[in-house]
Amino acid sequence: MTTQDVPNLAIPTNGREREEPPPGSIADLFREALPALDFLTERTKLDTAMIVRQQDLHTVIATGLRNPDLELTFLRNMTAVDWEENGLEIVYHLYSMRHHQGVALKAMLDAEAPHAESVSDLFMGAIWMEREAREMFGIEFEGLVDARNLLLDEDIDIHPLLKSHPLAEIEKPQGAAVADFTKAYPPPVREDVVAAQAAAAAAPDPAADRKSVDEMTPEELAERTERHTERVRDGRELAAARRAQGPATPMKDRSGDAPPAPPTADTLAAPAAEPAAAAAPARPAAPAAAIGIGEGSLTDEEKAERVRAGRELAAARRAELAKERGE
Q1: CA 199 to CA 250: how far, in whole Å?
Q2: Distance between CA 69 and CA 296 in Å, rounded?
Q3: Planar angle of CA 113, 49, 54, nearest 5 degrees
Q4: Would you tell me which of 7, 86, 115, 247 could form a disulfide with 140, CB atoms 3.0–4.6 Å apart?
Q5: CB–CB of 162/82 below 8 Å?
Q6: What tens digit of pLDDT does each residue of 47-59 get?
Q7: Where are the domains of the chain?
């Protein structure tokens, strides 16, 4: 079928060749369901496209939804294309979850007063899409239950996605000319911010004087290695001292205790003991130095004694390990 066979169905293509879909496409199923329908077909990258008349659009979409061989139950998207003096093209993208097939339904609308029948009675999600198309392209949908603006204010009667929309005239008042606005209304200068930026720029960068390992001399590399070894040794000695102190909270060894006896009928029936009368006197708290807390209150001599004890314990442990290995 060609454009001449069905008048008023041609859609501008900017000079490109229209490619027909292969036999057995979803268009053949629509021909079986609607044998009296006149339409054109086109092969696209995603789905087969069908070009129908504006007055047949609602019938075709309803048939695709209800026909068991089609079952186009998912409205992917609805949009429009402005072909300027040739009119507006409205496009519905439908998909079948059951048959894994899709179709793009297209129709040309009048350029002066574009209108189409709403499909919100078939797809609830079409309400949002048709509201956006009405707002952006000026398409009026007959039967649309909610025709309010979706993105723009209610009192704005413009259609920004039309190619005739005067974008250049409205961009400056909306703030597109930021450089002109900043020049006309310069921001206030804060002296504290300027002083802080100047001080940061004048301060020496510590990373600038830092050398990498490849740039160090043998003496500098040896000094760096010695400092690292000293830090590691101090950390190990401190860890050994803390292990010598034991846990911060005294714990009782319960490994030899017998498991508790299961409850019996007598113990369950016995009245609970009064906690206030049967409570044992609280044990006095251990001194802070004994449990390893309160280090801030220790004198220098006490700290040195703890470090010495930790070193002795670590040396004894190393000797035991060497003896076990036979060294």
Answers
A1: 54
A2: 83
A3: 25
A4: 115
A5: yes
A6: 899 999 999 999 9
A7: 26-159
pLDDT of 286 over the 70 cut: no
CA dihedral angle for residue 152, residue 158, residue 161, residue 163, rounded to 10 degrees:
-160
Architecture in CATH of 26-159: 2-Layer Sandwich (3.30)
Q: How far apart are CA 59 and CA 71, in angstroms?
A: 14
Q: Which run of H or of E encompasses 302?
A: helix 300-324
Read off φ and ψ for residue 71, nearest 5 degrees.
Answer: 50, 55
Identify the DSSP state of 97. Answer: T
Pair of tokens at residue 135: 């707002």
How far, in Å, CA of 217 to CA of 308, rounded?
A: 36
Residue with the larger pLDDT of the pair 112 and 186: 112
- Per the DSSP assignment, residues forming a β-bridge with 178 are none
Residue range 99-156, pLDDT digits in tens: 999 999 999 998 888 999 999 999 999 999 999 999 999 899 999 988 888 888 777 7
Relative orientation angle of helices 218-245 and 300-324, to the nearest 10 degrees = 90
> What is the rounded average pLDDT of the residues 193-214?
76
- What span, in angstroms and rounded, lies between the C-alpha atoms of 33 and 66? 10
Tokens 């940061």 found at: 200
The pLDDT > 70 percentage for the chain reads: 72
